[in-house]
Amino acid sequence: MPDEGTPQRIGYVLKMYPRFSETFVVTEILALQDQGADLDIFSLRQPVDGRFHESLSRVRAPVTYVPTPGKPPEIWGALAGARELHGERFDACIGEILAGSPTDSCQALLLAGLIRERGITHLHAHFGTIAAGVARLAARIAGVTYSVTLHAKDIFHEDVVDEELAARISDAAAVVTVSDFNERYLRERYGDATGNLVRIYNGIDLDAFSASRPDDRPPLVVGVGRLVEKKGFHHLVDALALLRDRGRPIRLELVGGGPEEQALRTRVAALDLDDQVTFHGPLTQAETRDRVRAAAVLAAPCVVGLDGNRDGLPTVILESLALGTPVVATPVTGIPEAVLHGQTGLLVPEGDAVALADALDRLVEDAGLRCRLAEQGRRHVEDRFDTRKNTGLLHAVIGGRAAVPQGVRG
């Protein structure tokens, strides 16, 4: 273990970096970088996205793609090298190494070697699945601490193995999660293992999201996110049809791509809404900002998927509030912590297209309400979701020997 006087060098462990949909990771890295954190980024998989956000160019931390040995000679070589390098710590972990998947265990061995080589003193993983599993084992082998940020799919999905997640929580020097809802759920489910759990909200760079008054906006609703079940966009399409049938047509722009795109296009066509709905596909952060800033309302009709998957607290909601675009959303997981009903936005029941249509119609028609919600929404984001403030708290956790400071809450 490094001495207390040793400067902290933090290894960020991610399953895949960069990912087009995980803007919060880059925002956090940039904020830590601005605060002087010494970072190395380790990605366990090669990126598959064909486009990248412009903010990525400002990341100075080196990125290493950890090899994935697959052939027996490579696996045995990784074992032999780690045994020679780490000695007794390797021996203490051999049971766990052999019990894991060959890919994950070998990447943990190789990452442990990189920790020694680079002088890494602490590992921080995003998501409690593969990244946390590899980081935890690598940290144990190399004799450093590790921490993890838990989001949503890694907590609630039906594929989550309680025993595995409990071990990753219990062994972490600090566990961060992104909403009060998550914190309550984790404490109730994992009990004593959550002694080092702290809630720190994801934040946004407020300088990049200047607010404008939404009093003079066209009857346009925008939805942003991957086109997957948990986003609830099929209910949004149904709400548009209800409004059209009431003689209150509004336009919808959907930003994002995903496996549900064809089903959504089919639904739009079946409801004869082709002239009201535009599919933009994935856009950059700057392009998305322009679309959200031009709309009267952002709709985030999130639902809990059949597999338990759900959103934690979508970043686009925070961005919309910061831009001055009112939000209609559902009370799924941490969303009510940003969208305070009647104060910073409107909440409607999950899966209720009628209530969603009513709320959209109300905001599109009432410029005064839009402006009041927008003003309060911006203040709320400034108070609770400023990335400089929240990442400062995170840095205090993972940059200070990963002990959770008393009273940390961001």
Structural description of this entry:
The structure is a single chain. The radius of gyration is 22 Å and the shape is elongated. It has helices at residues 23-34, 72-86, 88-99, 102-118, 130-142, 153-156, 162-171, 180-190, 233-245, 261-270, 285-294, 315-323, 353-365, 367-384, 387-398, and strands at residues 9-16, 38-45, 63-65, 122-126, 145-150, 174-177, 197-199, 220-224, 251-255, 277-281, 297-300, 327-329, 345-347. Helix 3 packs antiparallel against helix 5 and helix 12 packs across helix 14. The longest helix is centred in the C-terminal third of the chain and has 18 residues, at 367-384. 44% of the residues lie in helices and 15% in strands. The strands form 2 sheets. The chain has a 7-stranded parallel sheet with strand order 3-2-1-4-5-6-7, with helices on both faces. Strands 10-9-8-11-12-13 form a 6-stranded parallel sheet, sandwiched between helices. The chain is built from 15 helices and 13 strands. 47% of the residues are buried. The chain has 2 domains: 9-203 and 387-398, 3-Layer(aba) Sandwich (Rossmann fold), CATH 3.40.50.2000; 206-384, 3-Layer(aba) Sandwich (Rossmann fold), CATH 3.40.50.2000. By secondary structure, the protein is of the alpha/beta class.
